[in-house]
From TrEMBL:
GO terms for molecular function: rRNA binding; structural constituent of ribosome. InterPro entries: KOW (IPR005824), Rib_uL2_dom2 (IPR014722), Ribosomal_uL24 (IPR003256), Ribosomal_uL24_C (IPR057264), Ribosomal_uL24_CS (IPR005825), Ribosomal_uL24_KOW (IPR041988), Translation_prot_SH3-like_sf (IPR008991). One of two assembly initiator proteins, it binds directly to the 5'-end of the 23S rRNA, where it nucleates assembly of the 50S subunit. One of the proteins that surrounds the polypeptide exit tunnel on the outside of the subunit. Part of the 50S ribosomal subunit. Residues 103-113 have a biased composition (Low complexity). Keywords: Ribonucleoprotein, Ribosomal protein, RNA-binding, rRNA-binding. One of its GO terms (biological process) is translation. This is Large ribosomal subunit protein uL24. Belongs to the universal ribosomal protein uL24 family. Residues 5-32 form the KOW domain. One of its GO terms (cellular component) is ribosome. Residues 89-113 are annotated as: Disordered. Residues 89-98 have a biased composition (Basic and acidic residues). It comes from Arsenicicoccus cauae.
Length: 113
């Protein structure tokens, strides 16, 4: 699978599906499956059994389920609208050495993410 441009901690907006239009912060990224876990998005109900430890009571638990990365877009920090991401490659000289630095840039506004 191609490299994902969405990282942990990004603010994303759902562009398709039942949660369309909602925004949330990325909790985790699964690059092999191509899925992201977004805070407050794609909530599912799980029935859990009571365990032996203290505080492990049974019941109904609401938790987030992973959503495919193609169904979310990063929110532009300037316009607060979903945007695509491109990579800008710069050569920076530090201590007499040249180093290439890759920065994620919003396509909509051109600002760094």
């Amino acid at each position: 699978m191609a490299k994902m441009k969405i990282k942990k901690g990004d603010l994303v907006q759902v562009i398709t599906g039942p949660d369309k239009g909602q925004t949330g912060k990325v909790i985790s990224v699964d690059t092999e499956a191509g899925r992201v876990l977004v805070e407050g998005i794609n909530r599912v109900t799980k029935h859990t059994k009571a365990g032996q430890g203290a505080g492990r009571t049974g019941g109904i638990v609401h938790t987030e389920a992973p959503i495919h990365v193609s169904n979310v877009q990063v929110v532009d920090p300037e316009s607060k609208k979903p945007t695509r991401i491109k990579t800008r490659v710069e050569t920076v000289e530090r201590d007499g050495r040249s180093k290439t630095v890759r920065t994620r840039v919003s396509v909509r506004s051109g600002k760094d993410l």
